[in-house]
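Data availability (excerpt). All sequences and predicted token strings are deposited with the supplementary files. A representative entry, P/Homo B domain-containing protein, is shown inline so that the format can be inspected without opening the archive.
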Amino acid sequence: MKARRLNVWAENWRESVVSLGAPGARVLAFIALGERFLLDVSLSMATGSMSSAVLLVLACLLQRRVVTTEGHHGTNRHVFYAVHLDGGIRAARVLAVRHGLEFIQQVGSLKGIYTLRDSRGRSDRATFEKRLSTVPGVHWVQRQHSHYREKRVPVTRKGHITPHSSQRRESETCRQLEENKSDQFLTFNDPLWPMQWELFAQGEYNSSGFDLNVMPVWNNNITGNGVVVSIIDDGLDYTNKDLKKNFEALASADLCASHGVSPDPMPIQDEENSHGTRCAGEVAMEANNSYCGVGIAFNARIGGIRLLVGHVTDAMEATSLTFNNHFIDIYVCSWGPRDDGAEMDGPHSLTVQALRLGTEKGRGGKGSIFVWAAGNGGMLHDHCGADGYVNSIYSIAIGAATQTGEPTYFGEACPGVMAVTLTGAGVGGPLPLITVTSIGEGCVTHFPGTSSAAPIAAGILALVLEVNPKLTWRDVQHLIANTAKIPDPKEHGWNINAAGYHVHHRYGFGLLDAGLMVQQAAHFNTVAPQRKCMQEVPLHTNRGLSPGGGVSVNILSEACHGRANEINTLEHVQVRVNIRAVCRGDLSVSLESPGGTVSLLLDTRPNDASTSGLENWTLMTVHCWGEQPRGLWTLRVTDHKGTVRSCMRPSEEKTAGAVLSVTLILYGTYHPHRTTHKGTLQSIVSMGLHHPIPYRVYQRDRYPPLDLIEWVYQMERDRKVRSADIIIPPRPKMRKLPGNVVVDRNGQIPSRTLQSHRVNVERRSSATSSHAAVKELHETVTDGVE
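Structure token line:
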């Protein structure tokens, strides 16, 4: 066993040294030195003369790998290329040297794809790029272009940071809790905890009675322990009193350094760069430290990947989304294209590969969890169908609801939204917005937007993964679909799809309920393998779009019937389209399923005067979840002339555009004994179960009766999960060792604990503190490890 571990460490040593980018002779010498040291270590282990503490330190050092990307600071002075070639790092280095380029690094975990850097002084760049792409072994060369990604904070009053010294208050709520102590409610000494109504509505902050039902989970000692969450944002202040205990260096990096990646995600210390720290606080603020508030998963490990500092590139995004994906469980992305109602953008090719790779290889093959903010462009009539990150099947798009369950004024609607969390509506309401720690010595009580909604969802998912770490990325999405609740039955637009799921373009499947999700996750059976069925739709001739008119494309689908990828139970549905338009914002695109469910894939946008149309654009819906896909699908493209006033369309124009191509992409599973039911709906999917419907509701009704939605709402409200309803299967018993290290019943240190312990070594600079760290590690090893 020891020899096997040394072999792993040696391989990590080689890869780490090679990635440093030193000249070849020094690299080989450094590798040889490391291997000689490992040999000495193995001999010492055999004789028992090697200190266990030194071995542990060595293991930790070798676990850390250097990952380098271009950093936005160099894009003005240099040209960066992503190159896909055979032969590995050595071949990439040779290619760089022979063509006068500088080798930077592999792009994240994308195999065979590397970043090379060139100065901007080269004359005939087009010829150079063509010559580079024809080198034997090179598959393609892609010049990297910078683009802007916006943090999902709506326009509101400027955040006011309250100094910690003035935060403590003798709250009426605290006194009420002291008078009404119960084993059902935990209390915390964090001064702003009573204001966190979204987690536990109490006292003066209980005007709505709405919360995310976290308390029953905490009462079962489920706090995110062992789960690693990383915030991809503008950095993370790991010195913050509420975050430093849970900070995880292995889930952190700075991708914006001038000369490659730095392991230090510390942001610029100003209000503008506090976004990532606030997102991290929502997830993992320390509990009972008499400071600020409490994180949803207050024992989870939290990291930060610094990306959003100026413009970014496709390779930078791809690197961030695959960074240490064997170690990080959940990535939180509270950003995306501009929410101006005019931009249409999403993940570019490398980032698309990174998302797919993360779900295939991340978390040991169970798949990384990507939580994305759905967007804040509601005031500008934006639609998240124009956001390619929301349209990805690999992301979990999260919207926001107010303290009364209504949609927020800033939220965007589209059928790619999976669920919502509570964030409050705006400043001046009866309740504060999200209360969270911030950079430096301060807290805020008004962190708004889907920026705050996505980390809340990630915190809930951290609780879910603690209970059942075997869940795959698709299991998590099924849990959301099965358990999300209707927060406001009177909000127009609720629909019951043909499989019995309630869906809404603003809410997705509904509001997340932490207690219900954890209860269901504890005994969740992994879903069947995903299948994919693509169908290119023959149009014969271009479908011309008349001004103010529409085009319908009928798609008769067999869902790959009789083939190995046959699907009879849907998950995601995508439509890839090429549509020419004289005014893109005047267009709407909808899709009707064989079961009658209508998804508004893209709505009109009054600020989008682009003439580019939709070029190879992929739209997505989750509203057909669980439905049978065989039958007639109908895609409708409509021109709403006059929506975008700045388009200045003439009255005599003869065409508004044309539908050039359509591809239907179905994702789902196959259940051998599933029967197709038509006619009236038989049951509703709610709280993880099928409930017989007491009304006659036909599948093809555009909207179900309001009393049916009200019935579902009342049932979900009345059957709220409580502490005793959560039955957790036996988990390995852990015991504490010195240095906050846990050891299982077999006397083994879990790998994550071993890796994260290195933070305490890295952060200490003086010889005295380093000696103390080694001594602490030695005590840990001798106390509980072989």
